[in-house]
Amino acid sequence: MSFLTIADIKTRYGPVEALRGVDLDVNEGSIVVLLGPNGAGKSTLFGCLLGTVLPDSGEIQIREQPITADARRQFGYLAERVTLYPQRTVRENAEYIARLKGIDPGVIDDSLRRVGLEDLRERKTSQLSKGQLQRAGLAIALAGRPQLLVLDEPFNGLDPLVLEMFLETVREERERGATILISTHTISAAEEIATHAAILLDGKLAASGSIEELREQFPGHSLESIYHRVAKNRVKKSMEAMAA
Ligand code: ATP
User: Fold this and answer.
1) Between β-strands 31-35 and 196-201, what pairing exists: parallel, antiparallel or unpaired?
2) Which of 30, 123, 148, 180 fits 195 for a cystine, CB–CB 3.0-4.6 Å?
3) Any ligand 1 atom below 6 A from CB of 16
């Protein structure tokens, strides 16, 4: 069943056409990796989903109903740059966000344990390393067992062990029944967990489908190599169009 439907989303920032009509159907319980070069529109698309960016047109539905502010509040979100109150502890930040989402703040202990941060729960977030801050962000996203997890560049700057823990956590979340959207440039890691992939180029989807469908279209290619072929093909086509 389709959990999330993104239909013909267009977004401009002044003269910049960030999204030029994006359609994406996300099945319940899937792990969709959103790939695309810098500036392709991945964060903007997530912004539209989360309600921080207002699209100029198009529609987003959850379970075939227009998305609501209440539904958005329940999403688990890990931002590309985790921003927490620096002078507050990991626990205080996590409890604060849990309360905003209407979740029992008691659940954050379990989330912090899952990402291995239980010993740092009383540390100010200004004193965390980048990877630790990323783990705190993931713990906060997991709190309350969200139905949709949106992870924007979650693998950046992680050491290999923490990366493995992130991948395992995403797998566990899927087993629990969550639907997961991940934007990333770390394609080989994403391929280990992805059920679907979508490739965004210049604000439009250039390819999307299940990993099996994409492998059938590009036999013998890894997701990384499929991505490169789709991206190069698009550049070639636009150069041909300019020359015509
Ligand atoms: P990256 O991989 O670098 O994070 P992205 O795919 O997430 O990139 P977006 O951040 O969504 O890309 O940006 C899409 C386009 O919109 C880019 O051309 C960017 O410069 C532009 N853009 C993004 N945010 C704004 C803004 N607040 N004001 C104006 N232009 C913006």
Assistant:
1) parallel
2) 30
3) yes
